Amino acid sequence: MPSKPPVVRSRLDQTLDRANCDVVLIVDDVPDNLSVLHDALDESGYTVLLATHGEAALQRAEQALPDIVLLDAMMPGMDGFDVARRLKASPRTAHIPIIFMTGLTETEYLVAALESGGVDYVTKPIKPKEVLARMQVHLAGARERRQARNALDAFGYASITVRVHDGKLMWQTPLARALLMRYYASEAPHTPEAVCQWLRRNAADVAAGKLSGEPPRLSIEQGPKRLTFRLHQHIGDSEGGGDWLIIMQEVSDESVMDAIALSFKLTPREAEVLYWVVKGKINRDIGDILGSSPMTVKKHLERVFVKLGVETRTAAAGMAMARIRQLHPQFEA
């Protein structure tokens, strides 16, 4: 008696319990193939999503962000190779491992599967135990990378992956998305031009062996906060520069201002003025930052001189810097 096709229940409107099981998207236009895999994976504790054509696969992957995709290579309309390329082109889905399912064993098709973004392949007729074994290998790696990215976000370190040759932002963590929007008003797949230039310059120096230590970091200031970028890891082959994992961190110097105020018995506004003097800003620039006139800044600074017992900006900055270094050794002037 032939097996019955599975009842396709949409789980996209439900909460996917990722803490207890992995989510698998199966893409195949043959109901019998879906049935066999669905039953095997469901019995093994996976949450299973189904798609019977390329457009549905892309839509479900974008909405549900599965942990892994089992993808039929040959389908009418949009084939599996095109689906894989589009999944890898989207920052939201580029990180998802893809295992191709194919009845074609010729080398050119297997190479095409890997070149379009697949990490592995299984041949038809499908053997569920083989599929489960292959999935476990790639899910373990994906799970570790996901946990690492989540941990980075939790500790305030955002991460992005950027392709060197065209500057395309391949994927980003939620914190990275928020920071890029706040500092650059930029969204994936576009990487801010300043970041692209910094990446290409340093990636070229790394490739040429010109750097013995860590490449210089990129920093952008926004008031008392600044966003820093550092090259963390080269990913993939070196053709065209490859991809780079970049770690971002936002640092706030508001605690430095509080320390200045307490140390020298300054008002909050006087502490802000002294902070920007330490940063090398002139009165006009400080006025622009604080939304006041250069004359008002000058009056605040005169009161700072009295409280510190100094007569010049240089002396005031020197006293403040010495105290800041004691309390915040990581501070960058």
TrEMBL record:
Q: Which GO terms describe its cellular component?
A: cytosol; protein-DNA complex
Q: Which SMART domains match?
A: HTH_LUXR, REC
Which Pfam families does the record associate with it? Answer: GerE, Response_reg
Recite the UniProt keywords alphabetically: DNA-binding, Phosphoprotein, Transcription, Transcription regulation, Two-component regulatory system
User: A single GO BP annotation from the record?
Assistant: regulation of DNA-templated transcription
Domain called Response regulatory: residue spans: 23-139
Q: Which residues carry this modification: 4-aspartylphosphate?
A: D72
Whether Ubl conjugation counts among this entry's keywords is no
- Would you tell me the protein name for this molecule? Response regulator transcription factor
* Organism this protein belongs to: Rhodoferax aquaticus
